[in-house]
Amino acid sequence: MSLLPIIGITMGDPASIGPEIAIKALLHQDLYQICRPLIAGSADVFKNIQQKLNLNVQINAISKVADAKFEFGVIDVYDLKNVEIEKLQFGEISAMCGEASFQSVKTVIDLALNNEIDATVTGPINKKSINEAGHHFAGHTEIYAHYTDTKKYAMLLVEDKMKVIHVSTHVSLRQACDLVKKERILQVVELLHNGMISLGETNLKIGIAGLNPHAGDSGLFGTEEAEEILPAVEEAIKLGYDVEGPVPPDTMFAKAATGYYGGVVAMYHDQGHIPFKLTGFKWNAEKNQMDSVKGVNITMGLPIIRTSVDHGTAFEIAGKGIASEDAMVLAIESAVQLSKYRKSVAV
C-alpha cells in the first residue's frame, strides 16, 4: 500500500457537482488497489454530501497527509475549513465558493511541489466564482502554469482513441487565429508526443488540423495554413515526429475517432472540444440529463502531474445525487498512469 502513488483530488466548486463526483469516485474500491486518494477541500462539504446522499462512508478530516488512512470506505479530506456550510447554496455563484475551490487547487499544487503527493486531479470550478473571490485566472490550466512558473504548456484531452491537444484555449476566437504560429504548433506537437508516450500510446502518428475551412483550400479561404501550419509540419518531420497536415478538421477528427491518429493538434478551443465531447458525453433526451460523461483533461508541460474531469460544474444538477463520476474515475486512473511513467523514467 505504501508504494502506491498518493493522488491529491480537489473539491471543485462546493456549489457544483465537484464534491459529489469526488466522493462517488472513491466508492470504486478498485481505485484503492492502484493509488492512495486524498481530497483537498472542506470536510463539512463532504459530510453534507455524505448525509444528503446517505452514503456508507466515513469522512476523515485531516490537517496533514501523514494522518490519512487510505482505506476503502474512508474518505480522507485534507480539511481547509473554508466553507460556511449554512451559507452554501447549490448551483449558485459566490465568492465564498470561488475562494474555497481556488484554495483547494492551490493546496494540491503546493503538496505536489513539496513531493507530499505524487499527482493532482481537479474537479470542476466556476470561473466567475473564482474571479469574484479576487483570483483572476481563465481556468485551471492558467492557475497551474502561474504557481509552477511554467511558460510552455498545453491542454491535452483524452478519451479512449481520441487524444486532442490545443494550440490555444481560453481566448477569444479572434485572438485564437492570431496565436496560430509555427513555433507554438511545434511546442504542442512535442508536448503531445511526450504525452502519448507517457500514457502508453503506441501509435505516435499525429494529425495537425487546419485553421480555415478545407484547411484554407490552397489559400482561397485563408493563408495561415501556408504561412504557419505547413512550415510547422515540415519542421516537425525534420525533427523526427510522425505528423500529417494541415488536415481539414472535419476529416481529421473522423479519422482520429477510429484510432488512425494516436493524437491530433487542434488550433483553438472549440475545434478540439466539440468532436472530443461528441465521443465521450452521452446525453439522455428522455431523462434530460447525461447518462455518462467521459473525458480527461491533462495539462502537459508542468513539473507536476495534473489531470482533470473535462466537464463543467453542472450547477443545474448539483446536490441532486445524479451526477456521473465516470470522468473523475478516468482522471484518477490517468494520474496514476502518468505517475507510474514519471517514476519509471526517473529511475
From TrEMBL:
Q: Which PANTHER family does this UniProt record tie to the protein? A: 4-HYDROXYTHREONINE-4-PHOSPHATE DEHYDROGENASE, D-THREONATE 4-PHOSPHATE DEHYDROGENASE
Ordered alphabetically, the record's keywords are: Metal-binding, NAD, Oxidoreductase
Please indicate if the UniProt record lists NAD as a keyword: yes
Q: Which GO terms describe its molecular function?
A: metal ion binding; NAD binding; oxidoreductase activity
Organism per entry = Arcicella aurantiaca
Q: What is this protein called?
A: 4-hydroxythreonine-4-phosphate dehydrogenase
* Key word Transferase present: no
